[in-house]
Design goal:
By secondary structure, the protein is an alpha+beta fold. Helix content is about 40%, strand content about 20%. The chain has helices at about 5-10, 10-20, 25-65, 65-105, 140-145, 150-160, 170-185, 200-205, 230-235, 295-310, 360-365, 390-400; strands spanning about 125-130, 150, 165, 190-195, 200, 225, 245, 250-260, 280-290, 315-320, 330-340, 345-355, 365, 375, 380-385, 405, 420. A hairpin with an 8-residue loop joins β13 and β14. α7 (about 170-185) packs across α12. The model has no long low-confidence stretch (mean pLDDT about 95).
């Protein structure tokens, strides 16, 4: 959500920032609605003040024996009481219209975000690791994994497309990856482990900018709750409506949860394999910070995600997303893309974003700076540390052997009971 005061103060700068994201100028329409609402608010407040003044004057007039004035004031108060609810309702409706208009405008890009229209304009910041040289033609995971326990047919038979049934060693390797990631983030990197709900209400989805923009990409239950598309929703919403003690900041939270996405906007993309599923697991990272600390926290969070890939010895690159490829709520985003030798391509495995105060305004999450009476909005950040299924795919493709087996990375073997290799059935 945007600060209407900033739009009032410099509408040209607001429109220029939106233009960088490929959006049409919005300040004129927003400010017209704002002016209309403020005019109604002023009339409503004046009517309320006059009602209160007249009500007091009635008692004074009666006390002075001035019946005529008292009756005139009573008539005036009665008329105000008759018309005031209309003004209050108009004020409420215009306020809702203004919020709705602001709610569909994306976050403004940070100054150092590169200009661009799509992923082809993203900027590579760094690469890590050496791509493995195979003495055989490496397979894609969709071909390699079924004999190892990745059962696409059974998943589709019981649930439809984009669902997979994992068996035996494959299921254990998936669990090992998830536990390793969670232990690393909660242990070495200082995130507080959480076990949040995966069903949330409208307020949680709205506050984390998933509503109204992404309603079609999410699953909703028959009682009106939402299955989380990522535990960013649950973790960030844990401070919704709160005024936080500055001594508690930064808050660093992590969770391993199932996540659910309808992938309505991904028709035809990654229909084969385990890359894009309706149900998947992810270790999420969320930070709540003071405004002045969020940029450094963004770098730290991205580094925490990179550390997992480095520990697994998976080649990856760090990419700064351009204005046209960033998510709706992000002000700046780094993507980590892992190398998949079977596909011969870099594929996103983590996305770490600084949303500034964009989400905090929507969920009214604040803190009171030391020595100050006035509160300020916190900054929120989120990132994948990492997507478990995509990491499993990366391990399968990078550690595959010519005989169809897959070597288990050393850091995962303690979680695998010492198993060093998955063998095909």
């Amino acid at each position: 959500m945007h600060d209407i005061r900033l739009i009032r103060d410099d509408p040209q700068a607001f429109d220029a920032a939106l233009a960088r994201r490929g959006f049409e100028a919005s300040s004129e329409a927003i400010l017209a609605l704002d002016a209309k609402r403020r005019a109604v608010t002023t009339r409503m407040q004046e009517a309320q003040n006059r009602r209160n003044e007249a009500s007091k004057a009635i008692g004074q007039a009666i006390g002075q024996g001035d019946t005529e004035t008292a009756e005139a004031l009573k008539a005036e108060v009665a008329e105000i009481k008759r018309t005031l609810p209309q003004l209050e309702e108009e004020d409420r409706q215009l306020g809702a219209e203004l919020n709705d208009a602001l709610a569909v405008i994306p976050n403004l890009p940070a100054d150092d975000v590169p200009q661009g229209s799509d992923e082809s304009d993203n900027v590579e910041i760094a690469q890590w690791g050496k791509k493995r040289e195979f003495d055989f033609e490496p397979q894609e995971h969709a071909d390699l994994a079924p004999p190892l326990g990745m059962d696409f047919e059974t998943g589709a038979a019981m649930s439809g497309a984009r669902f997979t049934f994992l068996r035996g060693g494959m299921a254990r390797l998936h669990r090992a990856i998830a536990q390793f990631m969670l232990d690393r983030q909660a242990g070495e990197n200082g995130y507080t482990e959480c076990n949040p709900p995966v069903l949330v209400n409208d307020a949680a989805m709205y506050g984390t900018d998933k509503l109204p923009k992404f309603a079609d990409d999410s699953f909703r239950t028959t009682d009106g709750r939402w299955l989380i598309p990522t535990s960013e929703v649950s973790l960030t919403s844990s401070v919704m409506g709160q005024i936080l003690d500055p001594d508690t900041l930064p808050l660093r939270l992590t969770a391993l949860t199932s996540c659910f996405r309808s992938e309505a906007g991904a028709a035809g993309k990654d229909t084969r394999g385990f890359i894009r599923q309706h149900q998947f697991e992810k270790v999420e990272l969320v930070s709540i910070t003071r405004p002045e600390d969020s940029e450094a926290e963004h770098e730290r969070m991205t580094g925490c995600a990179e550390g997992v890939l480095q520990a697994l010895d998976l080649p990856y690159r760090k990419v700064l997303l351009c204005t046209g490829d960033m998510g709706f709520g992000a002000g700046k985003t780094y993507d980590l893309e892992v190398w998949l030798p079977g596909q011969g391509a870099w594929r996103e495995i983590s996305s770490c974003s600084n949303t500034g105060d964009f989400q905090a305004r929507r969920m009214n999450a604040r803190y009171r700076p030391e020595g100050e009476k006035k509160t300020e909005f916190v900054h929120t950040l989120n990132g994948s540390g990492l997507a478990v299924g995509r990491t499993l795919v990366a391990v399968l493709e990078n550690y595959q052997q010519q005989d169809g087996s897959v070597t288990v990375p050393e850091v995962l073997r303690p979680y695998m009971g010492g198993i060093e290799r998955l063998q095909p059935n």
